[in-house]
Amino acid sequence: MKYEVAPAEKSTVKITMQFTAEEWNAALNRAYLENRGRYAINGFRKGKAPRYMIESFYGKGVFYEDALNRLYRENYGTVLEAEQGKFRAVAEPALSLGEDFSEENIVLVATTPVFPEVKIEKYTGIKIPKYEYTVTDADVEAAIDALRRRKGKYEQVQDRPAALEDTVKIDFVGKVDGEAFEGGTAAGYDLKLGSGTFIAGFEEGVVGMTIGEVRDINVTFPEDYQSEALKGKPAVFTVTLHSIVALTLPELNDEFAAKQGAATVEELKAKVRADLERNAANRSRNETEDSILSAIAKFTTAELPDALIEMQEEQFLRRLEQNLEQQEMRAEDYYSYIGTSREEYKKKFEEDARKVVMNQIVLEALIDQLKLEATEEEIAEVVAKQAASVGKEPEVYRKGMDPRQFEYIAAEIKVKKLFEYLEANNEMVKPEEAKA
Asked: What is the chain's alpha carbon radius of gyration, rounded to the nearest angstrom?
C-alpha cells in the first residue's frame, strides 16, 4: 500500500491510500471467505460455492464493500501511526473512493478531521469571572423536599379538580383558524401540571378541570416558536380530562430518615448538606474553568473541524432526548409537537457546540504550549488514593488497571496544573466585577 497525505479545508487532511492488485485480490478473497455463507447458488451447498460463481450470479462487486472496509481497517491506523507528530486525528474520517475507481486503480480516500492550527494571542493578565456557590438552609430544605417527592406515592384522585403538581391524562385537539395542525393532537397523554411542557397558558387552563370535563383552552404560540407556521398564532385546544393522579409525600421524621441511611432527621439534613456542598464546589470549579477558557478563546484563532461540532451537537441532542425519556415523552412526539425535525432541532445547539469545541481546543493547545506533564510520582499518588478508596493495596490495584486509566489520570493531572497556572496568572474577580 502506498499513501499520500494532503491538507484539506476546515482542519482536515486527505489520506489517499492506493493498493496493488495483489492486495485488492487478497482483500476480496478474505471478504469471500467471511461472507460466502450468506449466498445460495443452485448446485452448491450454502457457503460452498466458489467466489467466481457468487460474483457471476450476484454481480462482480458483491464483495467490494467488505473488502474496502477490511483494507481501511488494516491500513488506516498504520498511516496515522506513521504520520504521528505531523497531525492528530480528532474524529473518524469520511471515506470515499478515488476517481476512476476500478480493479486496476484501487484508491481509498479518508478525509480526516485533525487538531487545528491554533493561535493564542493572550492567555495571562485577563480579567476573568470566578464563580463561588454556597449552600443555604433553604437549599437543604428544598433538597429534603425533593427527596420526599421521589419517595412519595402516586394515587388516583376522584373528589377534586386538577391542581398544579398533579399528573393528568388528557386528550387534546389543537386548532388554528379552525383547522387542526400537525402535532397538535394526542390521546391518553400524561401531563404533569406546572412542568412547563406545553406552551404558556395550556397547563394553567387544565387546572380546575374535573374528570370527564371537556374544555377549550385559548393560547397563543410565542413569536420565537420553532414552527414558522405557528409563530405568534392564537390557537384553541379542546381538552378532555380522563384522570387525575396526585403525589402523597411521606412524613419527615426519624423513620423516614432511617430509610435514607440516617439515624435522625438532623443527621439526614447534615448528609444532604454535605452532598450539596460537594456539588456546589464542583459547580464553582466547572463554571470557573469554563469562564477561563471562554475568556482566552476570545484571543484565539482556530479553524474548528465540522466533525467535532457535529459530534458535540449530537451529544447535546441525546442529552435532551434522555431527559424527555425520563419524563416519559418520546423524542419523535416532542419534535412533532413543536413542528420540527430532529435534524432541524439539532441546529439550535450549533453556537453552544462551537463554544464547547473551541474551549477544548484552547485547553489542549495550552497544555502543549506550556509543556505540562504528569510525573510518575503524581500518577502513583492518584492510583494510591483510588486503591485506598476500594480497600486495596496500590500494587494490587495497579495490576488490575486498564492502561487507558493511566492515560486518563495523566490527562487529569495536566488539566489540573493548567487551571492552577491560569488562575494564578490572570485577574480572577467576582462575576459582577468582570462586567464592570
From this structure: 30
